[in-house]
Amino acid sequence: MPAVSKGDGMRGLAVFISDIRNCKSKEAEIKRINKELANIRSKFKGDKALDGYSKKKYVCKLLFIFLLGHDIDFGHMEAVNLLSSNRYTEKQIGYLFISVLVNSNSELIRLINNAIKNDLASRNPTFMGLALHCIANVGSREMAEAFAGEIPKILVAGDTMDSVKQSAALCLLRLYRTSPDFVPMGDWTSRVVHLLNDQHLGVVTAATSLITTLAQKNPEEFKTSVSLAVSRLSRIVTSASTDLQDYTYYFVPAPWLSVKLLRLLQCYPPPEDAAVRGRLTECLETILNKAQEPPKSKKVQHSNAKNAVLFEAISLIIHHDSEPNLLVRACNQLGQFLQHRETNLRYLALESMCTLASSEFSHEAVKTHIETVINALKTERDVSVRQRAVDLLYAMCDRSNAQQIVAEMLNYLETADYSIREEIVLKVAILAEKYAVDYTWYVDTILNLIRIAGDYVSEEVWYRVIQIVINRDDVQGYAAKTVFEALQAPACHENLVKVGGYILGEFGNLIAGDPRSSPLIQFNLLHSKFHLCSVPTRALLLSTYIKFVNLFPEIKTTIQDVLRSDSQLKNADVELQQRAVEYLRLSTIASTDILATVLEEMPPFPERESSILAKLKKKKGPGTVTDLEEIKKERNSDVNGGTESTPVNASTVSTPSPSADLLGLGAAPLTSSSPPPSTTGSLLVDVFSDSASVVAPLAPGSEDNFASPDLASSEVVSEEPADTVHDADELIHKFVCKNNGVLFENQLLQIGLKSEFRQNLGRMFIFYGNKTSTQFLNFTPTLICSDELQSSLNLQTKPVDPTVDGGAQVQQVVNIECISDFMEAPILNIQFRYGGTFQNISVKLPITLNKFFQPTEMASQDFFQRWKQLSNPQQEMQNIFKAKHPMDTEITKAKIIGFGSALLEEVDPNPANFVGAGIIHTKTTQIGCLLRLEPNLQAQMYRLTLRTSKETVSQRLCELLSEQF
Amino acid sequence: MIKAILIFNNHGKPRLSKFYQRYSEDTQQQIIRETFHLVSKRDENVCNFLEGGLLIGGSDNKLIYRHYATLYFVFCVDSSESELGILDLIQVFVETLDKCFENVCELDLIFHVDKVHNILSEMVMGGMVLETNMNEIVTQIDAQNKLEKSETFIFQSPRQDR
Fold first, then answer.
1. How many CB atoms lie within 10 A of CB B143?
2. A809 plus A858 within the same structural domain
3. Which ipTM did the prediction report?
4. Which residues of A fall within a CB distance of 8 Å from B101?
5. pLDDT digit string, tens, across residues A283-320
6. B24 touches A at CB < 8 Å
7. What is the largest CA-CA distance in chain B?
8. CATH node for B2-155
9. Angle, vertex CA A110, rays to CA A104 and CA A113, nearest 5
10. Which end of chain B has the least Cβ crowding within 10 Å, N or C?
11. Chain A residues closer than 8 Å to B123 by CB
12. How far apart are CA A64 and CA B117, in angstroms?
């Protein structure tokens, strides 16, 4: 017998619906609906009390009207009244109305809650079920507040019916999701875990869902669920399917519950107990084995259910990432599915393989499927599947196959669906950058990207290519040549004009020697695009022109003519007008030297996380394949109860540094009586705009190019796990006069530094870059100070994440406090696992006494007066040494300033000499320092004299500075 | 978690909409339209999963759907649900409807909105799967109908009905 017999519907409702369906036009429909709404409204407002049947009928009509997309602004009160009826039919329709048309009207909520409370207490399982459904469907905070305490009791009470328990479990889960703060943990939690043993599989399924969510936030509390879940799973998987009666679905025993149990187990690391672990492995193997058995039914439902369990098992195997044997089997299974005739399975296989690709055990195995995946990209009819193929190619990409994958993605981009083009562009840009061995390839790839899909190339992408070209001088000439050629195309994308304009403005001189790309030709080429471009691009081109004035004085007049034309000088756009006016004026009045300084080549950009990567993350949201690694990490850290940030520091942590943030750095220590330093203004400057990059243009010969790691790598390359400290003092000397740069680099790891010091405090950012495509595990950097050093230097830092993904960079902040003057440098020891091998690297961290210098300006008279005061032989330290670098006045000046002291001009009677003054700040004292450097050009020698109030300080500063010239 | 369950016909006429996450009435209608637009343009024999539209929360959510004769059944779910599992659930839902209505067709859904909601609420509650065993669901529905019948028998007065 059918459960709903067709004759017993409400006739009035049927008539109304038929009327609506017969309406010939939208207008007629609206008219009919309005008529009905008026009818219902008058019935509700009428004096005559409506019987339950009529109320039900009218509420059904309202539901139907709502479904058609019309707002319902009345009837709530009638629905609430139905709740308190004793008759199931009326109560049920009342609850239905409320859960479809919730209204946050507080007065109503109070009435609804009241009705729910009565029903929960009624001990009538049907009514309790209705009430629990309503709470779960509405799930508001008010309801959570009212019932979150009550529901756990219903859930674990011994006499609760199975169906009510089922509803209570899910109801509690819903409330926990919306308002976890109202759901108290307590005695009931252990009893909920034991529901995993319940006779009724429906109860077990609901309880598993609940426990999975609770365990993500309170892993300790629900730890015991692991062994129970494993044994339940094992009973299901190994049972003959008939044992589970109704929960067997198309010959698959309890597939839904199996999936839920496997999800629950993904909240935890592999079980520690060997027996449990063994049993779980057995289950997973059985599931994998069953996939190879012939199907018990030809129906698609059978294979669906079976594969739902299989995919979840594979997810668990990937999550545990600990059994190479299972991982390889999982990978092979997915490989089979990649070629399956069912589109759904191909889709899911691609998706699962994405996560598998990040496992170190199976990355290589995944890579073997590259041809199949590329083929999928070319031949799949379904855009959803193609998109997964793109994701997988992105995930499996490493140095070995980057060129092939990028080429295939570019190919695909030409015909890709518009909806996913931008994402592919971002992915190509990231891969091209990450795996570029040869940066000419990178430049070609990005220009291709702009050519093929210029409209989808976001600003981040073209900003990034410029950053990279500016930071790598080996590619600048090639980039200039390539953009010049690309610009020859009669129609080129505006993004190409931007890139071309910027790059030629910086590096056009590198190709100007070729008569085919002479300055005038370059200029005419760019200017031919000018009028077709938008305002921002034109503004950029104007800047290029003024840069040309500096690079190519021979075309100055041509450019001035262009700037002077009415279309520029009187341009309606103020930005363009202003640029034209200012640039014209600048080119007219400034001397060549000033022009050269103002229009100097851009300094290298600081290394940060690629803005493109950030954009992709933002675009894809946190829950997607590209971020799976992070999600996994998050889950793990949840399970372990969150990672505590404790200072892991070898040095004694006596007083916590007051510098909680960058700005606090300057504000806190001003208690000292010394006059505030004259350069306080720079305090607010972005931490990355440090003095080093300011110094750079002054000293064009100095090679502190942070972004070109090759320089550093030629100094220190060490592959073997070494316990020795790398090139000890060499490195220290490299950083004496600057705060930023590459500290260390080998084939695996690059360590970059940025630091900032103020009085006796400092902050150092250490950047660890994983140069490989494989994760570093157990990555632990430690700072080591000798006992002596510990008493003078206080270092504080937080541990970094122990896994560093391939190609990723992690940052560590060290807060530094100088207690008293010191001689040695702290040692940075880094240990990690790469592949199977243990790596151990130690480098000296360039924190030197001169970092705590504050420059002091003084006049000639003052200087010599103090000089004389410090005439005690212990106070003076002198060193005569041979010049190790060309004796260039400007470089020397830059170095003295970089060293930290003020450079005093016109103090020494001999203009060839350099004198400086400053104060070393420590927590205990301040030490005034004077220095004098006398070069002898003929002998290529220097004499350096340091006078300070403290012998050790004179000695140390003299040592440090002597190495610089 | 299941965010929404939508049923609409080949022309995009909604036949059931159930949202487990709060959206304004306007947004609900827009989501229905957007979802119809996304799903209806797909060929037969492509896969049953696709990324959700912007309104329902973008690529964090998946649309899992099946197309039966004149009707689309679409479940919008987040990443915590098994795709194939949900596909099975749709099948269970349809089979249950078929049992309850005897060869269910679009008209049954139109004229018995309340019944369809009832059946659904035996399977999905607050966005979570409550029951997947069809016999259990049908038993519950039968019990409800008996209750209803007994009440109708006592109280309903056969009179003019508009």
1. 15
2. no
3. 0.89
4. 2-4, 6
5. 999 999 998 888 888 888 898 999 999 999 999 999 99
6. no
7. 53
8. 3.30.450.60
9. 100
10. C
11. none
12. 12
